[in-house]
Amino acid sequence: EVPLLESGGDLVHPGGSLRLSCVASGFNFGTSDMTWVRQAPGSGLEWVSAISGRGDYIYYADSVKGRFTISRDNSQNTLFLQMNNLRAEDTALYYCARAIPVAGTGSHYFDDWGQGTLVTVSS
Amino acid sequence: QSVLTQPPSVSGAPGQRVTISCAGSSSNIGAPYPVHWYQHLPGTAPRLLIYHDNKRPSGVPDRFSGSKSGTSASLAITGLQTADEADYYCQSFDNILYVWVFGGGTRLTVL
Question: Per residue in A35-49, pLDDT tens?
Answer without folding.
Answer: 999 999 999 999 999
